[in-house]
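Components:
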Amino acid sequence: MRRYVHPETEDIELPGVLFALSDATRLGMVVELSDGVERTAGQLGGEIAKSTVAHHLKVLREAGVIFVRSEGPRCYNSLRTEDLEARFPGLLGHVLPLAEREYR
Amino acid sequence: MRRYVHPETEDIELPGVLFALSDATRLGMVVELSDGVERTAGQLGGEIAKSTVAHHLKVLREAGVIFVRSEGPRCYNSLRTEDLEARFPGLLGHVLPLAEREYR
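Structure:
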C-alpha cells in the first residue's frame, strides 16, 4: 500500500493552491471532485495519458488541494474542501463556479 | 516609447490569471495595485532586482491582470480591475483579501 504525503492544513499556501488551479486539466479535476465524491485517477483522467494524470494529481496533492487515500490496489482522490475553507475562506466557492463554466 | 501587447478582455483565461497570481511577489504587486493607483516598476519592485520585477510584470500583463502604459521614459502599471470583473466576476474581490492577509 502506497502512502502519500500531504501538507498540514496550516502549511497550505495561497500561491501553491493558485498554481495547482492554474491549469485547465487540473481545474476540471477539481470541479469534478467538488461534489464530495472520491474518485480514482482513472475516473478523473478520462482519456488523458496515465502519467499525465499522475502528474496533475501530484501537483494538486502537494499543494493541499486533494487528499489521496490508498485502499488495497486502488487510490482514491478527494477534494480537501474543509481544509481549504479553513485556510482560505470562500476561495474554492468562488473559483470553482468560474471554472465550472469553462472546464467541466 | 515602448508599446505593450495586452490580451483583449474576452481572451483573458482563468488558468492564466490563476498562474499569474500563483507567486507571492506577483500577489503582493496585485494587492498594491488594488487601490486603483498606477505605479512604475520601481515603485512596485521595492528592493527586488529590476530584471525580476520586469519578468513578474510581463507575466501579469500577458495574463491580462495588469495594463502597462508608456508615458515618455516611464511605464505605468495598473490593475485591469474592470476587465477581470467582466470576465471572472468576484475573482479578484475574493482572492485579494486572502492575499492581502499574507503578502502586503
